[in-house]
Design a protein that fits this description.
- This protein has 310 residues and is mainly α.
- The chain has helices at residues 11-25, 30-45, 50-65, 71-93, 99-120, 124-149, 157-172, 174-198, 217-229, 233-261, 268-280, 282-299, 301-309.
- It has 13 helices and no strands.
- It has a domain at 207-310.
- Helix 9 (217-229) packs across helix 10 (233-261).
């Protein structure tokens, strides 16, 4: 039996969901964000099988071929190398550490290194401009496609203005969005690595088990304080990015608590209601999940529920 078929499960569903998230929110090339960490891990420990060598070579070629020669292209590859290198080192040094802990550690180290390099050399303004320009190019392409679908008729000015304002807001929080996209990309790369090297489907744990270090709540609280107190434009921006990043993680943690309390899964009707809520009332649904996730930090809802069940 092929080693790739020894064990099956729902890990591929989790990897596919993380891939969709990466494609949806990544401000850099998703192939680079996933491919570079995958290639680094495979080069270190995963090239024993011919199939693994061939796939790694293919991914490496695709990553190199996607290079467009622009300054932004070098920036996104440098970031992917920082994240992928940090994750690979943590995997070698602390193989028993949970995936989310290694991924958060890799993103934190990469963010610190990139911040020191960019701010230390006075290039933050340049990076800001590159990010916003890339986002505006993507929006311009999307608007042009919509214009063609409408038979050449332009979109209402109010819609265009709203889209441009959204781009401006996204440019403000691009560090947080980049960090979140990097986490999801690492999840795809890690699942692919484990699946290819062991033939097993256990690279990603079920959502109901998702949790991270409780002390990270102080990152959220500190970011909230900086945002509210407005101690200078740059400090407020740091706080806003911390709130966006940790808020998203706590919302996912809240969803994990709900799934745990529901017995590990939701009914089809529940999924439909959640989907409808995300479409029509996303702030309310996200806020509810965020509150539940924050509450789990102090009350350990799942731990108490498991203790009562025992």
């Amino acid at each position: 039996m092929s080693p790739l078929r020894r064990e099956t499960g729902r890990g591929w569903v989790r990897a596919l969901l993380l891939l969709a998230i990466t494609l949806a929110i990544s401000v850099v090339h998703p192939l680079v964000l996933i491919g570079v960490p995958f290639v680094l891990m495979m080069l270190v420990t995963g090239l024993q099988r011919p199939a693994a060598f061939g796939l790694t070579l293919l991914v490496a070629v695709l990553v190199v071929a996607s290079m467009d020669g622009t300054p932004f292209g070098y920036v996104e590859r440098a970031w992917a190398l920082l994240v992928g290198g940090g994750f690979t080192v943590l995997t070698l040094v602390r193989p028993a550490m949970r995936f989310i802990a290694r991924a958060l550690g890799a993103v934190a180290v990469a963010m610190a290194a990139a911040g020191a390099l960019v701010v230390g050399q006075g290039r933050w303004v340049v990076l800001d401009w590159l990010m916003e320009d890339r986002m505006r190019q993507g929006v311009a392409a999307a608007l042009d496609m919509l214009r063609q679908i409408r038979g050449g008729e332009g979109l209402p000015p109010s819609v265009v203005a709203a889209v441009q304002e959204t781009v401006r807001l996204q440019a403000t929080v691009f560090p947080a969005v980049l960090a979140l996209a990097s986490l999801s990309a690492l999840g795809v790369a890690w699942w692919s690595y484990v699946r290819l090297t062991t033939g097993r489907d256990h690279g990603l744990r079920p959502l109901r088990e998702f949790r991270f270090n409780d002390h990270l709540v102080w990152v959220f609280i500190g970011g909230l304080a900086l945002t509210v107190l407005q101690w200078g434009g740059e400090l407020a921006r740091v706080g806003t990015n911390a709130v966006v990043f940790m808020g998203a993680l706590y919302a996912v943690r809240g969803a994990a608590v709900v799934m745990f309390l529901s017995g590990g899964g939701l009914s089809a009707l529940s999924y439909m209601l959640v989907a409808a809520g995300l479409v029509f009332m996303p702030p309310l649904v996200m806020a509810g999940a965020l509150v539940i996730g924050l509450g789990d930090t102090w009350f350990d809802v799942r731990g108490r529920a498991a203790a009562r069940a025992a």
